[in-house]
Every structure is written in C-alpha cells, then in structure tokens.
Design brief:
single chain, 231 residues, alpha/beta, Rossmann fold, seven-stranded mixed β-sheet, five-stranded antiparallel β-sheet
Length: 231
C-alpha cells in the first residue's frame, strides 16, 4: 500500500509500504550492500561528515556509520527513515532540502538519482549537492554503467539468496527510458518501474557545470562512481 500517490511513470508492487518513486520499504531492508561503503571510505577522509541524499532504509548508511562517519540521512519517505539507525535523519524531498547554513565534508548522491527522467528534478538534486558541500569537500555521485540499458532482460543471483532481474528498458520520449526491475526472494516478490535518462559523459559534466561542480576523478574503473568538487 502506497504512503502517497505514486508519481507518473513510477510504480512499485509487492508487500508493504511503497514510496512515491516505486521503492518498496521492506525490499530495501533486505537488499545487501555492495561495494559502496568501500568506494566511499577510500575517497574521503576518515570520520568525515556525510550528507546522504536518498538514503532509503539505510542499506549504505549503516555500514558508513559503523566505519565512524557522521551521517545525515535524507529521504522523502518517513517509512524508509524509520528503518535507519545510528544516523541523524531528515524527511524531505532532496530538491527542496532546507538545512539552513549547514555544510558537509561529503555529499553523496547514489542510487542513480542523477539519471532522473525529469530535468527539473535532476538539476534540483545537483543544486542541493552544491549548496551543502563545504569548500574543500566533495560530492560522490553514482552513475549508471555504460551497458545498464543493454542486453536485456538479464538477471543476477546474489549470494544472500535473492534474484534481481532488469526486465526491460523502453524509450518513452525525450531521451527517457522506462525501466522495469524485479526482485525475487524465496518468500516475496517485488517489482519497480521507474524513469531513467541515460547521460553521455559530456551531458553529465555539463549538468554538473551548470550546478557549480566539476568532475575531479572517477572512483571506479567502470566510471560508475565519480568524485566531483565545487568549481
């Protein structure tokens, strides 16, 4: 059951609360963390203050807290934030986040949020990143891989025992694609449909530039994780 009206182009199915962008809360409490904490810890000073934009249920938040980072977790879903432990939580849309004059050593925008299908949303996300990163700090952004929308359908079986399937990625106009993903556990199944705008290197860097940021370096060989800094 949705906590509020799902946005156009976004849909989630399966047990439990579902956020406006189609994310199922229980699903995100079950998904295992990947290499994100390692990538982040290697890119920033130990003990940094981190503003995590779009934290969800704390899948990445909790390992960062365990490593000694001071995390402020932001999400628009109160149901997601109820799952977060050990971090300060702020319930707000990222684009309209208001933390006054606070700034952070690190601002993190993961979960491919930079690929929002809506220009207004993407630009708002990046402006928030720039607003809250302190001088000398960094913005860590997770991008889609170059082959994210290719060779579909495809699936992967996680050692924890669940299967993730990217079922389809269909163009819906203006460079945007509608992506449908399925998550299957032994006792439950969820699907999520969302909009994604693939970005070339030039487009990505142009959007950063417009927000007052520039690419410092790639943090992973596949270019999925990027470190940006204020211009």
């Amino acid at each position: 059951m949705s906590e509020e009206l799902v946005r156009e182009g976004y849909l989630g199915t399966g047990p439990g609360a579902i956020t406006p962008d189609g994310c199922a809360v229980e699903l995100y409490t079950r998904l295992a963390v990947a290499n994100e904490p390692d990538v982040i810890a290697a890119a920033v000073p130990a003990g940094s203050s981190i503003l995590e934009l779009g934290s969800g249920a704390g899948r990445v938040t909790h390992p960062l807290v365990e490593r000694g980072f001071d995390v402020t977790a932001v999400d628009e879903s109160r149901h997601m934030l109820e799952q977060v432990r050990g971090a300060r939580t702020v319930c707000s849309p990222i684009e309209s986040l208001d933390l006054g004059d606070e700034t952070f050593d690190v601002v993190m925008l993961a979960s491919f949020l930079v690929h929002s299908g809506h220009h207004r949303v993407r630009d708002g996300l990046l402006r928030t990143c720039r607003r809250y990163v302190r001088d000398g700090g960094s913005v860590l952004i997770q991008r889609e891989g170059s082959d994210y929308h290719a060779d579909l359908p495809r699936e992967g079986v996680h050692p924890a025992g669940y299967t993730t399937r990217i079922l389809s990625s269909d163009p819906v106009g203006d460079g945007v694609r509608s992506v449908r993903v399925e998550y299957e556990f032994a006792d439950a199944r969820w699907t999520q449909t969302f909009l994604s705008r693939p970005l070339s290197k030039e487009q990505f860097e142009g959007h950063l530039d417009a927000a007052g940021l520039r690419v410092d370096r790639c943090l992973t060989e596949d270019g999925i994780w990027v470190r940006a800094v204020p211009k």
